[in-house]
């Protein structure tokens, strides 16, 4: 057997052992099913390094291993095994991008179809199997109060079928943005590609905001959306002139202030300058607004001509918010 194909044989052996364990359990011999089940997981894991020696071996090897763990998760009713399946499928997708000859500069954008598939799969699993509700059962482990408090939530996440695929989707969106940044040697700056990646990632985290009712995700979505606007400004060369870039970004600052004020008034959340400064859906928008005002005003100091307009608009916004 060629060295670069021995991994396939090990993964195949693992699949055969998994089938034997299933047959033994169906025959009501669970005590005899445990050894082949353990060896199945070991064999699949040992088959991954030899499969990584070339692209063809990695493509089919990691795909087979991901399917083996997914089938084991469904059979054993163990959602935690889907974590391994999700990780292996990520490697498989990365190998596919290399094998298909995708331009490395486009790796980030090429991740978004997989992100969409992962989130769709997560929703389907939620629709079919639901999400476990955290319960403070009597079996809570001993330890500090914070550990006893988070144990039910952690347990519910480990028992949640969709959790690995939600994590895949949201982590994949952030990785896509990172791959779109001109950080690698030889990669040219492409503001249009970066703006598109940031805009798509912002939409992904708006989805996360709606799905999990999380203000943190809303803040991240806002940061990514504003980053997309900055990338568009860079596309026209304005970032080389900070004061003019601040002027170009000014409509975004105004829209952020309007959204924050509208949400605050609609939900009757009160002023953010209080002890409960983070309580409310307008708070992430106000944090973004504070950063916009501070950084925009600093950039406006580099040139008095656009800086004067920026300063006047910032002053009007602060006066409006103070009333």
Question: Tags for this entry?
Answer:
mainly alpha
Structure overview:
- The radius of gyration is 25 Å and the shape is elongated.
- The termini are far apart.
- α5 (107-129) packs antiparallel against α7 and α9 (215-235) packs parallel to α11.
- The chain is built from twelve helices and no strands.
- The chain is mainly α and 323 residues long.
Q: Please, what is the average pLDDT?
A: 87
Number of helices: 12
* Class by alpha and beta content: mainly alpha
Low-confidence stretches: none
Strand content: under 5%
| Number of E-type strands | 0
Helix and strand sequence: HHHHHHHHHHHH
Q: Helix amount, in percent? A: over 70%
Rounded radius of gyration (Å): 25 Å
Distance between the termini: 78 Å
Largest sheet: none
Overall 3D form: elongated
Summarize the structure.
This protein has 323 residues and is mainly alpha-helical. It has helices spanning 6-26, 30-51, 55-76, 81-99, 107-129, 145-158, 163-180, 191-212, 215-235, 242-267, 283-300, 304-322. Helix 4 packs parallel to helix 7.
Write the SSE topology.
Elements: H1 6-26, H2 30-51, H3 55-76, H4 81-99, H5 107-129, H6 145-158, H7 163-180, H8 191-212, H9 215-235, H10 242-267, H11 283-300, H12 304-322
Helix pairs in contact: 1-2, 1-3, 2-3, 3-4, 4-7, 5-7, 7-8, 8-9, 9-10, 9-11, 10-11, 10-12, 11-12
């Amino acid at each position: 057997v060629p060295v670069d194909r021995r991994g396939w044989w090990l993964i195949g052996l693992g699949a055969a052992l998994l089938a034997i364990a299933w047959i033994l359990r169906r025959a009501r011999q669970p005590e005899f099913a445990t050894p082949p089940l353990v060896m199945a997981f070991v064999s699949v894991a040992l088959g991954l390094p030899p499969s990584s020696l070339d692209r063809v071996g990695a493509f089919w090897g990691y795909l087979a291993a991901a399917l083996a763990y997914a089938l084991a998760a469904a059979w054993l009713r163990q959602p935690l095994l889907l974590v391994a399946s999700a990780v292996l499928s990520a490697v498989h997708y990365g190998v596919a991008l290399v094998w298909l000859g995708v331009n490395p500069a486009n790796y980030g954008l090429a991740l978004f179809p997989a992100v969409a598939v992962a989130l769709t799969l997560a929703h389907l699993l939620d629709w079919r199997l639901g999400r476990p509700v955290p319960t403070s059962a009597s079996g809570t482990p001993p330890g500090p109060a914070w550990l006893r408090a988070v144990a039910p939530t952690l347990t519910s996440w480990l028992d949640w079928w969709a959790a690995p695929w939600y994590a895949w989707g949201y982590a994949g969106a952030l990785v896509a943005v990172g791959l779109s940044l001109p950080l690698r040697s030889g990669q040219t700056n492409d503001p249009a590609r970066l703006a598109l990646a940031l805009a798509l990632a912002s939409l992904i985290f708006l989805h996360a905001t709606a799905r999990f009712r999380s203000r943190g995700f809303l803040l991240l979505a806002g940061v990514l959306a504003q980053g997309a606007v900055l990338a568009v400004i860079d596309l026209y060369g304005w970032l080389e002139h900070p004061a003019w870039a601040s002027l170009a970004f000014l409509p975004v600052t105004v829209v952020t202030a309007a959204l924050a004020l509208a949400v605050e008034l609609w939900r009757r959340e009160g002023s953010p300058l209080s002890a409960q400064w983070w309580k409310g859906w307008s708070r992430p928008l106000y944090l973004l607004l504070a950063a916009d005002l501070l950084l925009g005003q600093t950039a406006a100091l580099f040139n008095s001509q656009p800086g004067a307009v920026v300063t006047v608009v910032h002053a009007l916004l602060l006066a409006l918010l103070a009333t």
